Amino acid sequence: MATFPLQVLTPERVVYEAEVDGLTVRTTAGDVGILRGHADYVAAIDIGFMQIRIGNQRRTAALSNGMLRVNRQKAVILVQACEWADEIDLERARRAEQAARQRLAAQKSDQDMALAEVKLKRALNRQQIAQKK
Amino acid sequence: MAGAGMRDIKHRIKSIESTKQITKAMELVASSKLRKAKERAQASRPFFNTLYETICDIASSNNDFSSIYTRQRKVRSSLYIVIAGDRGLAGGYNSNVFRFAETEMMRAQEQGQDIQVIAIGTKAVEYFSRTGRTILGSYPNFAEDMRTSSALGIAQLAAKAFREETVDEVYMVYTEFVSALTQEVHALQILPLSDSISGGGQPSSYVIYEPSPLEVFDNIVPKYMTGLIYCAVLESYASEQGARRTAMEAASDNADEMIQNLSLSYNRARQAAITQELTEIIGGASAAE
Question: Which of B164, B146, B161, B116 is nearest to B226 (CA)?
């Protein structure tokens, strides 16, 4: 199979840096599949996931806030946070969901609501990804 | 007379000893903070470098100028995001940042540009309000428990000023942590994303932006700025701790040396006093005979 190098980085760590056969990412424009030899490509990532394929193995990770860049040499995903499905702390995600729902219900300020909404989306996304593993 | 000299010296030794205790404690605190800060800064470095490279790569292959972030315009005003420490007693750390920032700003001013500042760190806020710069945003006590959302706030502030054309260029002045002993101040151009940032490249018309170049840039730029600011603050914070540890180590060593010298003079004074007393007694006794 034709592979290509993929880098997945967050400010905390290097999540992934190796060859993959295929990559699927949820961008703001929808899900995209990247294979070797893809054209130059740039897209933004809000809250979503990525799935990498190596041979017949697949791994899924939750992503939030960042970008995807593909050029002739490699694919790069730069995100604020990234966790593999088996790393996600379900308990914490549930707690975050609860806290965010409470803040939304409190209806304090627009800014507060917007922040809570993003947090809620993130918590739900993590739970969803965790169940996919 | 000799007795008074002795008392003075004793006082000085005591006060130096208590100073030494403080510098020693600060050194210990700084080195434990340094360890953690260094790990975080080093972990963020691949992200920081790749982020900047990727943006340069995107900027150089871009030939679409529909987004305001990629358009070159005449520079009338530039914004400097300056990252310094929250506390002093860190050797030359803060003053190095300010000196570097001043030189950069002077150069811009000579070209007739207005200067605006976003100050990160208590010392930066104090410095730039004292020197009377136009401050767009102040963020004291920022580095120690920074979150992504707080870095995002700064990025949004700077991006907004850029979009509204109150500033035409954005730079960031931060300190790179090379090692515990060496820290280097750098200025990095953040906006606009243009040839000046990437050093020129081959514009390619084949880059696919989804959904559209405009939306991609508008979405990516605040994220890119957030990432850069976040990592630069981590670097600077590690540098501050490194500088403080080195400075405090030197201060403790100096205190040790001073105490040693003073003890020597103290002993000498004591010996002189004893000798004098003895001579007086002997003199008195021989006079009585």
Answer: B146
Q: C-alpha angle B183/B82/B147, rounded to 5°? A: 90
The answer to whether the Cβ–Cβ distance between A9 and B47 falls below 8 Å is yes
Decide: pTM greater than 0.90: no
Residues B198 and B65 reside in one and the same domain = yes
Within 8 A of B230 by CB-CB distance, chain A residues are: 11
Residues B155 and B284 in one domain: no
Chain B interface, best mutation among A27, A28, A40, by max B CB count within 10 A:
A40
Residue of B nearest to A11 (CA): B44
Number of domains forming the structure of chain A: 2
Q: Closest Cα to residue B251, out of B89, B32, B10?
A: B89
Q: Which residues does residue A113 pair with via DSSP β-bridges, in sequence order?
A: none
Residue type, B111: Q
Q: What is the DSSP letter of A39?
A: P
Distance of alpha carbon A106 from the chain centroid: 29
Which of A126, A51, A48 lies closest to A89, judged by CA?
A126
Residue B170 CA to residue B177 CA, distance in Å, equals 22
User: What is the sign of the dihedral through the CA atoms of A111, A113, A118 and A123?
Assistant: positive
| For B206, nearest residue in chain A (alpha carbons) | A40
Mean pLDDT, residues B147-166 taken together: 88
Q: How many domains does chain B have?
A: 2
pLDDT the model gives residue B59 = 76
Q: What is the mean pLDDT of chain B?
A: 87
